[in-house]
Design brief:
Pfam families: HTH_20 (PF12840). With about 110 residues, this protein is α+β, with helices and mostly antiparallel strands. The chain has five helices and three strands. The protein has a three-stranded antiparallel sheet. The relative contact order is 0.17.
Length: about 110
């Protein structure tokens, strides 16, 4: 479990998982919008693969990525739904407003 949570701690890796989850099909590495270098992107895919979140295989010269949804759902029910349901804020966007509990006018 530790390795899975550490893999999902990074926003780029969460974006990859969300992309695979949303598409519902296998995707080549090059189809993901990356804001990092190619070598760093390769590292992120490796971390996801070693954590057991994705499976990688070749089709011709393309390295394909498959979300191991059945395995993950069996081991961690609801995890993928939670990750996919919480999109990252855009870079430079203000943080979401915080909800104040109590306080105010006392009404």
């Amino acid at each position: 479990m530790q390795q899975v949570l550490e893999a999902l701690a990074d926003p780029i890796r969460r974006a990859i998982v969300r992309g695979l989850y949303a598409s519902g099909e296998d995707r080549a590495c090059g189809t993901f919008p990356m804001v990092v270098s190619k070598s760093t992107g390769t590292h992120h895919f490796k971390v996801l693969r070693e954590a057991g979140l994705i499976r990688q295989y070749y089709v011709g010269t393309s390295r394909m990525n498959s979300l191991r949804r059945t395995d993950i759902d069996a081991a961690f029910p609801g995890l993928l739904d939670a990750v996919a349901g919480h999109p990252e804020p855009a870079p430079g966007a203000p943080p979401p407003p915080t909800r104040r509990v109590g306080g105010g006018d006392g009404a």
